[in-house]
Amino acid sequence: MSIAAQTIISEAQIRQFRDKGYFVLPGVVPAAHLAMMRELCGQFIAAYDAEMDAAGVTQQGINTKGSRYFIANRHKGTRLAEFIYSDIMAEICRATLGDNAYLFWEQFVVKGPENGAKFSWHQDSAYVGTPHRPYITCWVTLDDVTEANGTVYLLPFSRAGTSEVVPHQAATGTGELEGYFGPDPGDPVIVPAGSIAVFLSTVLHRSGYNTTPHWRRVYLPQYSVEPLRRPDGKLAAFAEPFLVKGVRRNGQS
Max alpha carbon distance in the chain (Å)? Predict the structure, then answer.
């Protein structure tokens, strides 16, 4: 029996998600999907580097050559949709969101060897800007992740003191949002490549520096229970139907 045909999420993990806001699935991504995402990530990085070399710069937007890359919205016309709308992701969405799930956002987040930047404590919901029902982030590891290479740290609701969106402020220099300044270091996610940390958009999380000589690559598809809109009524990002009243749509309206 293949992984996709098995139930990969336990009742204990579902309870943890309700209580803490997250759970972790070690080593569940099929090898073919893992290889595909690694290959595409490498191609996108090479394309960014070539553009920066041609322009004679080392920074393009928020991407810094060899240090960090945010590579978003690349699923159209690529094989990423095979993973985004896979059986595993359908099970995750059903277990966390229920019978309705929409692709909200997707991106690679890459930290370069020995100089990959850290990210401050924040909630993903803080970046939406309008009230909304929490969505889920699926933090998919393309490499083994450790504290040394800048893994993510998650702060359970019980220790954060809330499961709601908290006020954030923009950090000096980077502009990234910060929403927690307490002493709790959070729980590090230490898992092999091909694992998925699933957490609500109201879970506070951070990540450390990559101090190793290797890349730290992660792919992040995010799913919402309904289309998310900005104050002007326009979509905040995507709203591609995955599950609608329990029926698989796989991105097709």
Answer: 53
| Token pair for 222 | 């995010």
**Alpha-helical segments (H) within 24-86:** 31-55, 80-84
Residue 179 neighbours by CB under 8 Å, 6+ apart: 121, 122, 123, 126, 166, 167, 168, 169, 204
Residue 72 belongs to a domain: yes
Place of tokens 């309705």: 100
- Binned at pLDDT 50, 70 and 90, residue 197 comes out as very high
Residue 250, in any domain of the structure: no
What is the crossing angle of helices 87-96 and 11-20, to 10°?
A: 50
- Give me the CATH number covering residue 155: 2.60.120.620
Per-residue model confidence (pLDDT) at position 6: 58
Q: Is residue 187 part of a domain?
A: yes
Tokens of 63: 């991407």
Which amino acid would we find at residue 196?
A: I
pTM of the entire predicted model: 0.94
At residue 9, does pLDDT exceed 80? yes
Distance CA(105)–CA(85), nearest Å, equals 13
Report the distance separating Cα 93 and Cα 167, nearest Å. 27
Q: What is the mean pLDDT of the chain?
A: 94
Chain center to CA of 221: 6
Provide the number of structural domains found in the chain.
1
Place of tokens 């003191």: 161
Two structure tokens written together for 30:
């099929």
Domain that holds residue 127: 3-245
Residue 145 DSSP one-character state: B
